[in-house]
Design a protein that fits this description.
By secondary structure, the chain is α/β, with parallel strands linked by helices. The protein contains 9 helices and 8 strands. An 8-stranded mixed sheet has the order 1-7-8-6-5-2-3-4, sandwiched between helices. Strand 3, helix 5 and strand 4 form a beta-alpha-beta unit. Helix 2 packs across helix 5.
């Protein structure tokens, strides 16, 4: 669910825990069944039917993402195992260009160090962790999908960074295979929106981070003009899983505060879901992103990046 565009300008915003709003997170952020890349500047009508039996016209049913019903981790695991079976190829642009853009965001906000133990949550096919391997002491990739982990292990066998990386099946809500206070940097790129119990995920990340450790996240933002206005008015479906849940910056701040993270750096980034939308919509969003970049209108930027400290 990622895209890219040109260079950004400006710097990230910084919020401390004391400055976070005291508003409680929305109830649907804590209920499992309720869950739905430039450089960083530091995502023909049918016949009439009787009342109550109307169905969407065929063109509407073909618009946007085909949503997969999901209510628990088993559903999510099955969905991503199916994605892995097709190779999990990049859908939203040139794979290498998008990878380099995302890694630039990681380096700018989270600043990986040669002594770091890095944990990649929802690592997918392992391309981000394999690329970051030369910059850290050790890397661990976890994903709830065995199919994705197998893809990552295949990638690792052809990677020069074989000795300092491991990939394991694990649930980000629990992190059973990760010891307390053993991680310097945790990253989550394009996966947080798919995770059901977000407070549980953040609590697990906080537990495994060392004091002074960092959590970096790259995700689409819920208040992006595409998701908030254009797609609903156009009748486009935008969820891959019915349980997908994107967040606004304010919602992230509330969750991070509740998980006791003490300082947060936020920055918008260019996310255009090219693989999920028609080319004309991608052109429109690219133009809006350029306007948002220059006018500093974050609602026109599709992505939200942040780094939080324990």
């Amino acid at each position: 669910m990622f895209g890219w565009a040109g260079a950004d300008s400006g710097g990230p915003t910084i919020r401390t825990r004391n400055a976070v709003s005291s508003a409680k997170p929305p109830a649907n952020l804590v209920s499992k069944p309720a869950l739905g890349l430039g450089t960083a500047d530091l995502e023909k009508m049918p016949g009439r039917r009787s009342p109550g039996t109307e169905r969407p016209p065929p063109w509407a049913r073909r618009r946007g993402v085909v949503t997969t019903p999901s209510s628990d981790t088993t559903d999510i695991r099955s969905f991503f195992d199916q994605c892995a079976a097709t190779g999990a190829a990049e859908q939203h642009g040139d794979a290498q260009r998008l990878l380099e853009y995302r890694l630039a965001l990681v380096r700018s906000l989270a600043r990986p160090r040669p002594t770091d133990v890095l944990l990649d949550l929802g690592c997918g096919n392992g391309h981000h962790l394999c690329a970051l391997a030369p910059e850290v002491a050790r890397g661990i990739g976890i994903d709830v999908s065995p199919g994705m982990i197998e893809l990552a292990r295949v990638r690792l066998r052809t990677s020069p960074a074989k000795t300092n990386l491991t990939f394991e099946v694990d649930d980000a809500e629990e992190l059973k295979g990760i010891a307390d206070q053993s991680i310097d940097l945790a990253i989550c790129i394009g996966a947080f929106e798919h995770m059901l119990d977000k407070p549980a995920v953040l609590a697990s990340i906080y537990r495994v981070l060392k004091f002074g450790g960092r959590f970096f996240c790259l995700t689409p933002r819920a208040d992006y003009v595409w998701y908030q206005t254009i797609a609903p008015l156009s009748g486009f479906a935008t969820k891959h899983l019915s349980s997908d849940r994107m967040l606004t910056k304010g919602e992230f701040l509330d969750l991070l505060d509740g998980a006791r993270f003490r300082c947060n750096r936020f920055a918008p980034w260019t996310f255009i879901p090219r693989g999920d939308i028609p080319p004309v919509a991608a052109l429109l969003l690219t133009a809006l992103d350029a306007i948002g970049r220059h006018a500093r209108l974050d609602s026109l930027r599709g992505g939200l990046a942040f780094c939080a400290w324990k």
